[in-house]
Design brief:
By secondary structure, this protein is an alpha/beta fold. The chain has one domain (about 5-115): Rossmann fold (3-Layer(aba) Sandwich). The protein is about 45% helix and about 20% strand. It has helices at about 10-25, 35-45, 60-70, 85-95, 110-115; strands at about 5, 25-30, 50, 75-80, 100-105. Strands 2-1-3-4-5 form a 5-stranded parallel sheet, sandwiched between helices. The radius of gyration is 13 Å and the shape is globular. The relative contact order is 0.18.
Length: about 120
């Protein structure tokens, strides 16, 4: 089964996202910041990283950049989740290694549609 690592400093958002992703057929692991996410990736590289852009210790953009330098990190699909809708910010996130961008608040249909777009389902 494919693994999705959900990374957000909000426990509530992690739990909601984890439930959505589990319902899509993924195994799920959670991390509360970028440092813990990179540690988890070093143990088991996920297929998908669903990550908040703004977090303490190490934000999503810096985490994605570090992930892309890890062995196998170039194969991970990175989906950023954020409240920021400025086009320059979105472009910066995608240029940092993101494959897609989801605005918060999100629901199961939004995540499902992005995962379909990225050919992650089925």
């Amino acid at each position: 089964m494919k693994l999705c690592l959900v990374v957000d400093d909000s426990r509530v958002i992690r739990r909601v996202a984890a439930k959505i992703v589990q319902d899509l057929g993924f195994d799920v692991e959670e991390a509360e910041n970028g440092r813990k996410a990179l540690n988890a990736c070093a143990i088991r590289m996920p297929d998908v990283l669903l990550i908040d852009t703004e977090m303490p210790e190490l934000g999503g953009i810096a985490t994605a950049q570090a992930l892309r330098k890890m062995p196998g990190g170039d194969k991970v699909v990175v989906v950023f989740c954020a409240t920021e809708n400025d086009p320059h910010f979105i472009r910066a996130a995608l240029e940092a290694g993101g494959n897609e961008y989801i605005m918060k608040p999100f629901d199961s249909e939004i995540v499902r549609s992005k995962f379909l777009l990225l050919d992650l389902l089925g």
